[in-house]
Amino acid sequence: MRTSTMVIVVHSASLVLLIAFSFGVADAIRTLKDGPMIDAEGREYKSANFPTDAGYPRSPQRNDGPTVRVQCTAASMIIVVKADIYKNGFLVSAEELSLGESEHSQSTQCRAVAAGDSEYIIEAELQDCGSKLTVSNDSVIYSNELIISAAAGSHGITRRARAVVPVSCHYKRTHLASSTDHQQQQLPPSLLEKLSPAAFSLKLMTGDWTGEVLPEALYIGDLLHLEASYTGPDSGQRRLFIDSCVATLSRDATSDPSYYIVENHGCLVDATEEESNARFLPRRRASSLQLQLNTFLFHDDSRNSIFITCQLKVTSVMQMSSSINKACNFVHPRWINIDGSDVCHCCGSICSQSSLDYSTNHRDVMASGTVTIGPLMIFPRK
């Protein structure tokens, strides 16, 4: 009789332990569903504390900080997980952690790797590992799930349940179409330095060209307002030209696929496409050029982070336009130079410098530079 009673008590204790553990994991998941913390640049940072499971010994060096942290960059989601995720002294392994459902668990970018003695990290592009995209009027959300799969012990059993932790990155949309929009964000100095090597810069501007905005989320077809400038100490005596601009899916301007917006020494070839509103605007000053164009995506490619790299150069402000120093709009059926000189006839073929022009035009290129802006996150319209 005593033996039977003891068995009943043991089974009851095991049931209580299992129920307590299950509710503990559920509470942890609910913690991550609380409202997101969004920084000044519109990126969400989330963290959660997993509660200590009842009945398990506590680690002697218990850390009360969060055991799962999510950092959102402009193009990726970074998840940092502590090995003692439940704060009970039992450590999970890297093999037990993955981002996304099972079909993504074998992809390298969706697996955890060690980041020290007691932490693991998963870094994946925003659209990878089965992430789901939600777009509203004022935000863009990438959501996914961190999967904690309990590994089997040496006898084929486990005492931990599979857990699923929702993770997400929230971004505020950048509205560029309206000049009356007062929700624009200013470009931080750290990003400005990256976009402005030497004295050349390429900036994303508001619709009325009065201020600079963050290169964040846009809908396909939205107008981009780009301003290329030269700000060297001699800028008052220089005229800036955009030699070429190419759009790619990475910062590598030589990568595939690619699409040339400006080529052939200043020909705005994007303006020849149907439904394009691309054009150079009349100059406000010689040392800058303003360019507007519609956003686009690459066909049959799910990636939506676009980079634009431009080759810029300056000549003497007294130097006349030439076949290699020009800014040409396409106004069907002809090319027109915004600086007046009729030098755009070569845009339909190959623009090269004649031997008679070489000694003057080539010599008068005072400085040149390469600038990149991005990533610009572009989404299909609903």
Automatic annotation (TrEMBL):
Q: Which SMART domains match?
A: ZP
Q: GO annotations under biological process? A: binding of sperm to zona pellucida; egg coat formation; positive regulation of acrosome reaction
Any one GO MF term held by the record is: acrosin binding
* PTM info: Proteolytically cleaved before the transmembrane segment to yield the secreted ectodomain incorporated in the zona pellucida.
* Compartments where located: Secreted, Extracellular space, Extracellular matrix; Zona pellucida; Cell membrane
Every copy of the ZP domain together lies at 71-335
The residues forming the signal peptide are 1-28
The protein's topology relative to the membrane is:
Single-pass type I membrane protein
The domain comment in this protein's record states: The ZP domain is involved in the polymerization of the ZP proteins to form the zona pellucida.
Pfam families under this entry?
Answer: Zona_pellucida, ZP-N
Tell me the organism.
Answer: Gasterosteus aculeatus aculeatus (three-spined stickleback)
InterPro entries cross-referenced by the UniProt entry: ZP-C (IPR055355), ZP-C_dom (IPR042235), ZP-N (IPR055356), ZP_chr (IPR048290), ZP_dom (IPR001507)
Q: Which GO terms describe its cellular component?
A: egg coat; plasma membrane
For this chain, the family text in UniProt reads:
Belongs to the ZP domain family. ZPC subfamily.
Keyword terms: Cell membrane, Cleavage on pair of basic residues, Disulfide bond, Extracellular matrix, Glycoprotein, Membrane, Secreted, Signal, Transmembrane, Transmembrane helix
The protein's job, in short, is:
Component of the zona pellucida, an extracellular matrix surrounding oocytes which mediates sperm binding, induction of the acrosome reaction and prevents post-fertilization polyspermy. The zona pellucida is composed of 3 to 4 glycoproteins, ZP1, ZP2, ZP3, and ZP4. ZP3 is essential for sperm binding and zona matrix formation.
Q: Record's superkingdom?
A: Eukaryota
Which PANTHER family does the entry mention?
Answer: ZONA PELLUCIDA SPERM-BINDING PROTEIN 3
Q: What is the lineage of its organism?
A: Eukaryota, Metazoa, Chordata, Craniata, Vertebrata
Q: What name appears for this protein in its UniProt entry? A: Zona pellucida sperm-binding protein 3
